[in-house]
Specification:
By secondary structure, the protein is α+β, with helices and mostly antiparallel strands. The chain is about 25% helix and about 25% strand. The protein contains 4 helices and 15 strands.
């Protein structure tokens, strides 16, 4: 069931989102050659707990990390480990924080040192695809409008749209209805109403959209081993637009 959030709930979701945003900003200076993803995980967990919140992902369906750290061809759900970042890598960091029972959720892709033009292109246009999707949001629009906008932009820029993974509602559960795919037909799907809170999160590949899961039963990687990027914001639907909850 798709729920409409009260003003009290939106205030709590806004605070959860702010903590997620602040955690991303806190981690940015540490994202450099030589640091391990497990070190980033520890930094994030310590920061989130210092904000009177808890990491949403830790223990979620058995996930071992506080954040997801997905490098290069890893699309999502990279498990923090002793793997060191290298110059030229890109890393998608997905962060969730739970504040007084309400979740914030946002992913962003970062460059490690100097990256090649292909990765720059991928990052630029995946981020822009996110905002293309967000621009469709207002009371009365349909979920298919969001997916159509993301897919159209991605195809225009020759990027592969991962079909098996999607955005979602957010609230007292990390993943709620509705699903928000990154493809779709305009004017179809559930109708958005003022007070709904959703996460929109394009996951785009520089090559084929095909993916598979590693043996750890979590990490999703590209079939052709080419890079993937992931950008996500949690937003609340307003009468004539949207408010980003995981931004400044």
């Amino acid at each position: 069931m798709i729920t409409i959030k009260s003003e009290r709930e939106i205030a709590l979701l806004r605070q959860a989102g702010k903590i997620v945003y602040k955690t991303h900003q806190y981690l940015k200076p540490f994202i450099k050659e030589g640091i391990t993803t497990l070190e980033l995980d520890h930094l994030a967990e310590e920061f989130i707990r210092g904000q009177d919140a808890t990491p949403s992902f830790k223990g979620y369906n058995g996930f071992p990390g506080s954040i997801c750290t997905s490098i290069n061809d890893e699309v999502v759900h990279g498990i923090p480990s002793n793997r060191k970042l290298k110059n030229g890598d890109i890393i998608s960091i997905d962060i969730g924080a739970c504040y007084k029972g309400y979740h914030g959720d946002s992913a962003w892709t970062y460059a490690v040192g100097k990256i090649d033009e292909e990765k720059k292109y991928l990052m630029e246009h995946t981020e822009k695809a996110l905002y293309q999707g967000l621009e469709m949001i207002k009371a009365g629009c349909r979920v298919g409008d969001i997916g159509y906008a993301v897919e159209t932009y991605a195809q225009k820029h020759q990027l592969g749209v991962v079909l098996e993974l999607c955005g979602h509602g957010v609230g007292t559960n990390l993943h709620e209805s509705p699903d928000v795919p990154n493809y779709g037909v305009a004017k179809t799907g559930p109708r958005l109403k003022e007070g709904m809170v959703i996460a929109v999160e394009p996951m785009l590949n520089i090559g084929s959209p095909d993916i598979y899961m590693l043996d750890n039963d979590w990490t999703i990687v590209t079939e052709d081993s080419r890079p993937s990027a992931h950008y996500e914001h949690t937003v609340v639907v307003t009468h004539d637009g949207y408010e980003i909850l995981t931004g400044e």
